[in-house]
């Protein structure tokens, strides 16, 4: 039988890191909006083909957003797990679940 360590008690010294992790996850949830804004700013006008510079800028925006979407939850989950922040861990898992459900809904729409 595995013995789990007791959860760390709440102290105000632990609050800043928890708040930082939650802000990181809120930014993660809002990152599709940032991506839409950035792509709209660097993209071409409505009926024009993108220039090579615009295509390069769009690739940079796409890849940086993609990397952030992969790295942010991994970092938050790892830090929350190792520092025994159960509330942050639960909220992060709920945010990931919400994002997966939203993606599934988008893919299932015709």
Write structural notes for this entry:
The protein has three helices and no strands. The protein is mainly α and 110 residues long. Helix 1 packs antiparallel against helix 2, helix 1 packs parallel to helix 3 (86-108) and helix 2 (52-82) runs antiparallel to helix 3.
Helix content range? over 70%
Task: List the secondary-structure elements in sequence, H or E.
Answer: HHH
Enumerate how many helices there are, as a single number.
Answer: 3
**Residue fraction in strands:** under 5%
How would you sum up the major sheet?
none
SSE class: mainly alpha
Q: In terms of quaternary structure, what is this?
A: single chain
If you compute it from the alpha carbons, what radius of gyration comes out, rounded to the nearest whole angstrom? 19 Å
Morphology: elongated
Annotation, overall tally of beta strands = 0
| Unreliable residue runs | none
Mean pLDDT: 85
Distance between the termini: 49 Å
Write a brief structural summary:
The chain has helices at 15-42, 52-82, 86-108.
Offer a few descriptive terms:
110 residues, mainly alpha, 3 helices, 0% strand, elongated
Topology:
Blueprint: H1 15-42, H2 52-82, H3 86-108
Helix pairs in contact: 1-2, 1-3, 2-3
């Amino acid at each position: 039988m595995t013995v789990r360590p007791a959860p760390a008690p709440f102290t105000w010294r632990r609050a800043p890191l928890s708040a930082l992790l939650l802000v990181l996850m809120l930014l993660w949830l809002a990152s599709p909006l940032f991506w839409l804004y950035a792509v709209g700013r660097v993209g071409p006008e409505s009926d024009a083909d993108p220039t090579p510079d615009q295509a390069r800028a769009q690739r940079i925006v796409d890849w940086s957003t993609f990397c952030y979407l992969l790295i942010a939850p991994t970092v938050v989950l790892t830090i929350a797990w190792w520092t025994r922040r159960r509330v942050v861990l639960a909220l992060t898992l709920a945010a990931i679940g919400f994002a997966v459900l939203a993606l599934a809904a988008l893919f299932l729409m015709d």
